[in-house]
Amino acid sequence: MVASLVAALVSALCYGIAAVMQAIAVRGASRRTTARGEAGQGVDPGLLVRMLGQWPFLVSILIDLVGFAAQLVALRRLPLFAVQAIMAANLAVTAVFAAWLMKARLSVREWLAVAGVVIGVALLGSSAGAQGAARVGDEFQLALIVTVVAVGLAGFAAARLPDPARTPALGAIAGLGYSVLAISARILPGFAPRQLISSPATYTLAAAGIVSFLLYATALDGGSVTTATAAVVLFETMPPAVVGIIFLGDTTRHGLAAVAGLGFGLAVFCALALARFGEAGEERPQQQAHEPDRVGHVADRRAALVHAELPDQA
């Protein structure tokens, strides 16, 4: 159990760091020219190809792989609601790492939110019981396949939405895709090659990962890293928790259901409370960049008013 908790924390740490590095790579490879308020230009498949030329993206892929391996280890012993809530801690990692990388500062409220995530994760770790049965029927497997197809279609439609709805919509749909990935990973029969090849969950996991990553990268293209990640966290956390409890038999330790619920809610709520950090961090440089223009504009207006008030010397 302790090893699984450590694996979940390592996964959240990896995903949080990788999210910032992928945002840097997306902006370096972006060719978006859409003005604010206009419809988006859809999903750009060439974005991933161009991102391969960005070293932060290549490093982030390696970090993501380490995080995914750790997540698989955690899912073998912990219930889905605990693992996915701990995954929400990656948003706190994203905020702290972005603050260090971008030389920004976290406010007191944001540091409190980070502390809340840590406390929530601790409550979950102390109250989570063993995972339930992982065997499911063909109908469950088919439902996951249909969900991946629906996520892909909805994502391509959301990519054409105008700002500011585009980024959170794409993040939410990508989060649903990642929730399918987590559920698929949970129901894998094992890691032996024969088991992986024969299990439909393996292919659902791979398809959900590719589609979700493309949609997440599209959300980051022109959008706030933390806004996109907040939407992903919310929608990759809630559905698997419900599915795990209803269909997979996930439970808490005896008498600790309320503690688990409090920890889950605190971790997710405090993670989402950090959503505004990315927007604030991006607005400050823009405001500073435009400050000389505003000063010059005010000076020109004052000169015009003085000239208008002077009597005609002719």
Summarize the structure.
The chain is an all-alpha fold and 314 residues long.
Could you walk me through the main structural features you see in this protein, from its secondary elements to its overall organization?
The protein has 314 residues and is mainly alpha-helical. The chain has one domain. It is built from 13 helices and no strands. The protein has helices at residues 2-29, 46-51, 55-75, 80-87, 90-101, 108-127, 138-158, 166-186, 193-198, 200-220, 225-247, 257-272, 275-309. α1 (2-29) packs antiparallel against α3 (55-75), α5 (90-101) crosses α13 and α7 runs antiparallel to α8. The protein is globular and about 50 Å long. The N and C termini lie far apart (92 Å). The model is unreliable at 277-314 (pLDDT under 50).
